[in-house]
Amino acid sequence: MPRTPDPEADDLDAVPPPHPVFHIEQALLGALLLNPRHLDDVTGIAPASFSTAAHTALFATILSLPAPDPVEHATTTKWLDQVLAAARDQARGLSALYLQTLIQVCPSARHAPAYARIVEAEHSRRRLATAAQRLMRTAVDISLPQRVTTTLAEAETLTVVVDDIAARFPPHAGSLPRTPAPPTATHHDEEALDEERLLLATATLHASSVGRMRWLTPGDFTHSLHAGLWQCLTALTRRGTPVDRMTVLWEAQHRGLLTTGARPRELLDLLAGTSGSPPEHWGERVLQRSVLATAHHTGRRIEAYAGDPATTPYQLVVGSRRALADLSAVWTRWQHAASPPPTDNPTRPKSAAAPRAGPPRTTAPLTSRNSR
């Protein structure tokens, strides 16, 4: 005869916990149920710090109810009954049996502060992963009218989370995470490839613009051949060598680009294209994609660190700050590209010119007035 489930039966403890912190939360709640006075020793956490709705409801209830008289609490279940009644409004699956289980699994009520510290650390990990995922989603959301600005606003939010975790768990020397960083994603988007080709062709025709585009680097290109050709253009310009399709082809041969499968005729045809827009326009388009790709990869790196249970809170801070530093670097170059060059105003002394915004700190706000 099949067993009919009992709606009042407690099955919370029967579900395999997704993370070890589930047991730590049980021990902390058990300590507070056993001796509510230890709540005064618990800092750094809130109801949202817990990983399940039941634990969240219990901690919120313990916070809201006055602590019982110690003598009365030792001899009656009056306060526990009040906790259960109030918490069940938010988590109907709670039962008196589960509260007794929490008390039984707690090794020592005096260790409540240590348990709370662990709960705080794991909550920080979840917060960091959530912020990193939001950054990743924003960076690839083509429906946004101002993708760069919105993405960098999410990066600022992520930065705030990292700074808050750093304040709670100050990093120390030797705190690099051991989690391997995910490989850089390579997307050969046809629109991106076309824009890179137009940049290379127009820059070959108008070589004087190459020197003004120091904000663009080979790493901003999505195709390795295009990155190599940009290196050829910058090298020729830096040496003062005449620039045209033939001199770029000769430089490409010396840099080994013809050994990667590219044929001379193909390179010459690529560099022969032209458009009505100047090289700076296409350079900004290439750099914009690089900003978004770097933001997405930054989110992936931080998500990987947060997803590794072996990574300590201290390592999360150091690894996240290094990842954000890479985004800050490309963002600084974007500022230089998107900001118009300063011009002399004959009606105002040069010393009174408006200063250009400096690069953000590694974990400083990344939002800009420039929109793309």
Descriptive report:
With 372 residues, the chain is an all-alpha fold. The chain contains 13 helices and no strands. It has helices at residues 21-34, 53-64, 70-75, 78-87, 96-105, 112-139, 147-168, 190-205, 224-239, 245-254, 264-271, 279-307, 313-338. Helix 1 (21-34) crosses helix 6 (112-139), helix 8 (190-205) packs across helix 12 and helix 9 packs across helix 10. It is rod-shaped and about 95 Å long. The termini are far apart. The relative contact order is 0.12.
- Tally of DSSP β-strands: 0
Q: Using only CA atoms, what is the Rg? A: 29 Å
SSE pattern = HHHHHHHHHHHHH
The largest pleated sheet is described as: none
Q: Measure the end-to-end span.
A: 66 Å
Percent of residues in beta strands: under 5%
Mean pLDDT: 86
Tell me the structural class.
mainly alpha
Identify the overall geometry.
rod-shaped
Brief write-up:
This protein is mostly helical.
Q: Top keywords for this entry?
A:
rod-shaped, 372 residues, mainly alpha, disordered C terminus, disordered N terminus
Fold topology:
Blueprint: H1 21-34, H2 53-64, H3 70-75, H4 78-87, H5 96-105, H6 112-139, H7 147-168, H8 190-205, H9 224-239, H10 245-254, H11 264-271, H12 279-307, H13 313-338
Helix pairs in contact: 1-2, 1-5, 1-6, 2-4, 6-7, 6-12, 7-12, 7-13, 8-9, 8-12, 9-10, 12-13
